[in-house]
Amino acid sequence: MSHLSDIKLKIWRQAGPDEGGRFESYLVPSISDEASFLEMLDVLNEQLINEGREAVVFDHDCREGICGTCSLMIDGQAHGPQRGTATCQLHMRKFQSGAEIVIEPWRASAFPIIKDLMVDRSAFDRIVESGGFITAETGGAPDANLIPIPKPVADASMDAAACIGCGACVAACPNGAANLFTAAKVAHLSLLPQGQPERYKRVEAMVETMDEYFGSCTNHGECEAACPKEISIDVIALMHQDYRKSKFANRKTLSRS
Amino acid sequence: MSTTTLAGSEKLQSKAPAVAVPEMWETFKSDMKLVNPNNKRKFKIIVVGTGLAGASAAATLAELGYQVDAFTFHDSPRRAHSIAAQGGINGAKNYKGDGDSVHRLFYDTIKGGDFRARESNVHRLAEVSVDIIDQMVAQGVPFAREYGGLLDNRSFGGAQVSRTFYARGQTGQQLLIGAYQQMARQIGLGNVRLWNRSELVDTVTIDGRCAGIVTRDLVTGEVMSHAAHAVVLCTGGYGNVFFLSTNAMNCNVTAAWRAHRNGAFFANPCYTQIHPTCIPQADDTQSKLTLMSESLRNDGRVWVPKEIGDERSPADIPEGDRDYYLERLYPSFGNLAPRDISSRTAKRAVDKGQGVGPLKNGVYLDFSAAIARLGYDTVWERYSNLFEMYERITGENPTKVPMRIYPASHYTMGGLWVDYELMTTVPGLYAAGEANFSDHGANRLGASALMQGLSDGYFVLPYTIGNYLAPLLNKPTPGVDHPEFKAAETAARQRYQGYLDIKGTRSPDHFHRELGKIIWDYCGMERTEQGLEKALSELPALYDEFQKDLRVTGNGESTNQTLEKAGRVDDFFQLGMLMCRDALERKESCGGHFRSEYQDDEGEALRDDENFAHVAAWEWTGDPMQSTRNVEPLDFTTVHLATRSYK
Amino acid sequence: MADTQAPTISSANPSANPSVNRRGPVTGTAATAKKRKKFFLLDLYGTAVGKKYVMAITGIAMMGFVLSHMIGNLKMYLGEEDINHYAEFLTRLGYPLAPENVVLWIMRAGLIGALLLHLHAAYSLTVMNRQARSVKYQSARDYQIANFASRSMRLTGITVLLFLVWHLLDFTFGVTNTLGDGDFDKHQVYDNVVRSFERVPVSAFYILANLALGVHLYHGAWSIFQSLGWNSPRFNQWRRMFATAFAAIVVVGNVSFPVAVLAGIVG
Prior knowledge:
The complex is a heterotrimer. Chain A is an alpha+beta fold. Chain A has 2 domains: 3-114, Beta-grasp domain (Ubiquitin-like (UB roll), Roll), CATH 3.10.20.30; 121-256, Alpha-helical ferredoxin (Fumarate Reductase Iron-sulfur Protein, Chain B, domain 2). Chain A has helices at 37-50, 122-131, 151-161, 168-172, 179-190, 199-213, 222-226, 234-256, and strands at 3-14, 21-32, 73-74, 77-78, 100-104, 113-115, 118-119. In chain A, the strands form 2 sheets. Chain A has a 5-stranded mixed β-sheet with strand order 2-1-5-3-4. Chain A has a two-stranded antiparallel sheet with strand order 6-7. Chain B is α+β, with helices and mostly antiparallel strands. Chain B has 3 domains: 21-271 and 413-472, FAD/NAD(P)-binding domain (3-Layer(bba) Sandwich); 275-410, Succinate dehydrogenase/fumarate reductase flavoprotein, catalytic domain (Flavocytochrome C3, Chain A, domain 1, Alpha-Beta Complex), CATH 3.90.700; 483-608, Fumarate reductase/succinate dehydrogenase flavoprotein-like, C-terminal domain (Methane Monooxygenase Hydroxylase, Chain G, domain 1), CATH 1.20.58. Chain B is built from 17 helices and 20 strands. In chain B, the strands form 5 sheets. A 5-stranded parallel β-sheet of chain B has the order 6-2-1-10-18, sandwiched between helices. A 5-stranded antiparallel β-sheet of chain B has the order 12-16-15-13-14. In chain B, strands 17-11-19-20 form a 4-stranded antiparallel β-sheet. In chain B, strand 8 (209-217) and strand 9 (223-227) form a beta hairpin. Chain C is an all-alpha fold. Chain C has helices at residues 40-45, 48-73, 80-91, 102-132, 148-151, 153-171, 189-197, 200-227, 236-263. Chains A and B meet through helix 1, helix 2 and helix 3 of A and helix 3, helix 5, helix 6, helix 11 and helix 12 of B.
């Protein structure tokens, strides 16, 4: 174990959603290279409290890369410089002594800043609420082995389902689009046989809800690079295809009723 | 100190139907009172917490037609710590045809819990485990499949059949997303109202019934009352009392503790589970510990250097100088010995000075033998996601340097006392999931936590809550303008303002660390009468300092994580004292509770069924050092008490 | 029940998003979804995903045009007679089934329509994207995958559009390419081209604009697959290669003309 010294931090401070914000500079004199990035911020906050100042607000919870609560734009990259890694799993050994690190909140109109580095990502929940589910009310489920699902299909669905809903895709996208998040949710359910009855209704509702909050996908691929679960933009193509089909399939279904 | 009623407290009636254990649930369902579908919307139910138990309960209750208000302190319901469970979920499906059955799952759970769980509840858990798998598959959980397309199973510690369903190393995540999506659907339909970033700060009891809760908005600091016909707490466990645990940073005991202070008995707080395979603490700034799935022990060999203080790197230590202590002590189970045993033996090795790593605080989990036997590719394929996670955290590649592991607090079997209907000792107040004490006895088996959370939320509460609500139809209930609500709001505001007003010198985190160290040292893996008494003398003194020297910066009118933390640490202090008292009073060793005084010649736990085959449920009296211990005797009519042996 | 504090139900409308001082619960978010009664193609075009379909389909049409335009122009190398004859042939496409020029004008109308739709979709998506991040990042971004091509689509697109205007003035209407006395004979394609490219600044602009077109195609031709949802593990690896090859062929072909004129190979 060794220590890094003199980490200079430039952190975005903002008192509330409608307040103005600015970068403030802080110095962490010494930190173990075994510390995680968020532990380094813990140390800074202890330091601030000791000085009688207000701690930096940032979202975090499980600190093992699965809950998706943590965020942070670190040196211009969502979740920092390590690929396939959420901020909570980023460690200080990736940095050098004397480094200047700039930390900014996710920026998107759909993710308003609550305070400092904390943003409101509820728009993701709105997308799921509009259709990101399989209607299967408790009690009526058939036996779990009734429908065999080919292993590659289950695996592909799982690849998409690995999404942790952190919002890095939106943060990294030059357009502030949420296509990777939405498409991952769509692909997870629409690849499975259980998801077929609502397949087109689901994608139509989710895409149109997404449209109310987010920008559009222009295929930069930046979301895939930022995704801590490395979800492929292939799922976006799948969503686009299903969305087009939904306009035809739903029309046919509706005209029958 | 306390008085113990050995005969069993009258307040602790499980109310399980008076029939044979296997028939209880069917009998209950046949006899319970029902609420007419059109009348369900006249009832409002509050669900606090949106993990597996909370999300599944909120979704199902809303589907049935109740008005549901759900609360989470997270930004989204999908963040709850259920998400971090790796291994899997048990279900007595017998898809492998290896002789599994409801009875066998029931028996394994009772035995795994060291005969300290209630038979009635555990049997019901085993019965509905089958429905859970069906339900989750129907909702689109992408469980692992075999090439034929059918569900795959793996085996887990403490069981001799393959009954664990899994979705890669992310089973908890997939199940939580499944339950969250069902709840999201109900939010979209307008049947559930979701309050996010809102924390429960008190429960309100009026005329002997739970009338609602008081919450604090974590964004605006606003304190608000919410009235309901029934309140369900699905607020998880209290493992963060240790400061360093595998729990998420925000996991806390506040909801359960506030309910306890308002009349709900707290059962078996000393039953905490220590998980043997976590990454050891690396430095003083460490904020939490990370679990490495137990499955690693299938191919890893645990060892320490024989010589105390051996400074050589692991590659330089010849076979003859290594102590593969699990293989030596437990030849038949070897490296797969149960969690509590593996944990204790690791602690003993480290305490003796055989620990490895820069801080001498771990033991090796070595994959070199497996790589030599199976080849690098096979081993990498099995554990790549864990190896990568380990490397991200430690910077070491476990295929080249042996992994270092050490036990850490992981799960808490204790919790709010509940009866067969999951109701606490306060009528109308329910507890589900890890927040209650009911199903795991003194030790939880792997892959059973997910099962219990979903069982409570999907298949138990939606039935039992109707039994309570039916007689309340069209009867007036107190609203939020009732003086009791106003008093609770005032108390909550004063409480949080109080933390800001202390203006001392030390942060909540500072006190939490100190508290955690005391609990870990004296009420961790191995407990002694002397140690617990020492803890009970140090804790009130530290708590006193906390109340006088706390420093919370910022204000109470906007997001203030320091202030949130202060409230949680306050409740952890009180719980910590109760935990130590419970551990002191339970003069036996069972499951996760190991008292050094009660062990046999070989260091194995010695249970005392004569005097301690009971649940200890504590009643709040105004001071955690003065709580009253009540007892619910445990009757074993279906399984026979036996000594656990894994030799 | 006296729930006096029942807050207002927030809808799926982003403007009603909770971030104001008094926060209420969220519920009924899916129930307020508006019922669209538009013609389904307009309905599709109403969303960003639909607009990307339009971008892609019109993009394919224009890609077909630039490729065939370039191939046709290669007749420059066969000599004056061939290229002039080819120009003549275009006006008689479909003849005698269709009268002269009719098929050509149908194709031109299609291209003009495609261009207008492409522009409208691009404009509305740009507005949408600006709104989606009304406050920009205040520190420098460090892009990982997004490349010059993908991030300069607007710039290269506008460059190509301006070039197109000039190109029509130069070779179709002859405004910038007269014989000195204001005369222009569009049937003398070979002479017109040679005369125009002999002006070095014109050739330079032509080359620059074609490089912009190449950059635009390098991202656009790849992007089409994603936008149209043409995705399969079998051909995904070829998508990037296709776009690169397509852009390169068009650019090399087009740029060869001014180079050949200036080098004296043609003329």
